[in-house]
DNA sequence: TGCCGCTCTACGGGAAACCGTAAGGAAAGG
DNA sequence: CCTTTCCTTACGGTTTCCCGTAGAGCGGCA
């Protein structure tokens, strides 16, 4: 089992429960932070002191407040942590249930476990920590399904750009100019139209308004 | 202070922390459920047994799973609870930060407190419970600001209808037919255009997509 | 009743978006 | 080096949307 655990989680309530769960597993040495920058600092200090953390439990999204942060969110924190302490085990504890995102975390960021904030997350978290301790990977059950079943449409970077521009009031015909100015290809008006058509077709939508509403509902933009 | 508290919250971790916070306030008799239907049942039972709950702490969104529920979410739960136990105090504990939504909860559902799941939510929750116990209303600080600032334009019923139709994929020119079918006046296409123009002008917007995005962001539709 | 002010509706010209088609261009493969 | 294929872009015709104007309906008031 782990000896020293760091929790990066901006919700106080969640942080309390995570701490409690860990202490129930017999891990005495836990620290927690509400900010990514603090988490980074603690990781570095611990390593320099010769007593590095061996598990990081982190959320993905951290809300901005008066304290300006260099590290914006969980992904960045994970990447930086791994870069100077590659053996650090990482458990992501987040409400996100997008299969593509979770996949990326496992492949690109080589995390060890993903626990989704949901109905039985306390049990899941315990199971995940035990699994990692045995050198296994862990993923909440519901996500395993959704990776297979909910083959939801993957919005590309340019799709998101287009949607953001539209919801910012940009006229469709003015989008090519913006794309060119920002060196984004493809930039033709037809390509913009094509992307919008594909998005709408996949979703079974007929109008841009509908698409924007959907993306807002699911936090895509 | 309260004697008997019911917690309706589908996230196990959050539920644990809420329970802990409440017990720290010296409230011994707390029960928790992961489902709205269960919450409703417990409220009814308690009242029939002559020992009703005097505080309900509930989330807004409950995830669906294998257990089919009659009550879909927090709003519905609150409405039903109040209908048969009007003196029940209600504290909403949710991650939503849409001012329009929170406003609606206070005015239409006459809740007593809204605590947003955020950085200092444990402190906020404690403060909220103490405020309610003294017969006060409570709202997290960050929301007070946004309610005041953003609550400029008053969306009429027909405005909301138009916006909902648009975001459901209805063509603008087909909206008059819908309005007539539902006996809503005015129903002319020009009137629809006029309402949209007014909304956009007030907000400083130029396109419908922008308007939809705004309304989704602030929970207006 | 006749005038006035108001809102809703109808119409038409122009702009933007939609949609199909075809030409241009780069990468992959023989 | 050429061909095939896929993707991007360009260009028209049609639909929808946008916007200004004008007329119709309705209540208030002298």
TrEMBL record, chains A, B:
InterPro entries: CheY-like_superfamily, EvgA-like, Sig_transdc_resp-reg_receiver
Keywords: Phosphoprotein
Domain of life: Bacteria
Residues modified as 4-aspartylphosphate: 59
Taxonomic path: Bacteria, Pseudomonadati, Bacteroidota, Sphingobacteriia, Sphingobacteriales
Originating species: Pedobacter yonginense
Domain called Response regulatory: residue spans: 4-132
Regions crossing the membrane: none
Protein name per the record: Response regulator
GO biological process terms, semicolon-separated: phosphorelay signal transduction system
């Amino acid at each position: 089992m782990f000896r020293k655990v760091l929790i990066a989680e901006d919700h106080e309530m969640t942080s309390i429960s995570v701490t409690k769960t860990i202490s129930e597993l017999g891990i005495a040495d836990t620290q927690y932070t509400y900010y990514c920058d603090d988490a980074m600092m603690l990781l570095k200090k611990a390593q320099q002191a010769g007593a590095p953390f061996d598990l990081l439990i982190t959320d993905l999204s951290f809300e901005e407040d008066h304290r300006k942060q260099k590290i914006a969110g969980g992904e960045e924190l994970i990447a930086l942590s791994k870069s100077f302490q590659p053996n650090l085990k990482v458990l992501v504890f987040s409400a996100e249930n997008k299969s593509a995102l979770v996949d990326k975390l496992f492949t690109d960021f080589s995390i060890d476990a993903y626990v989704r904030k949901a109905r039985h997350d306390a049990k899941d978290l315990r199971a995940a920590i035990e699994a990692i301790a045995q050198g296994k990977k862990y993923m909440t059950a519901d996500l395993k399904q959704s990776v297979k079943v909910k083959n939801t449409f993957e919005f590309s970077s340019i799709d998101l750009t287009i949607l953001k521009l539209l919801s910012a009031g940009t006229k469709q015909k003015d989008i090519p100019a913006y794309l060119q100015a920002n060196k984004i290809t493809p930039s033709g008006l037809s390509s913009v139209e094509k992307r919008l058509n594909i998005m709408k077709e996949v979703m079974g939508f007929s109008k841009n308004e509908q698409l924007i509403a959907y993306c807002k509902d699911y936090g895509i933009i």
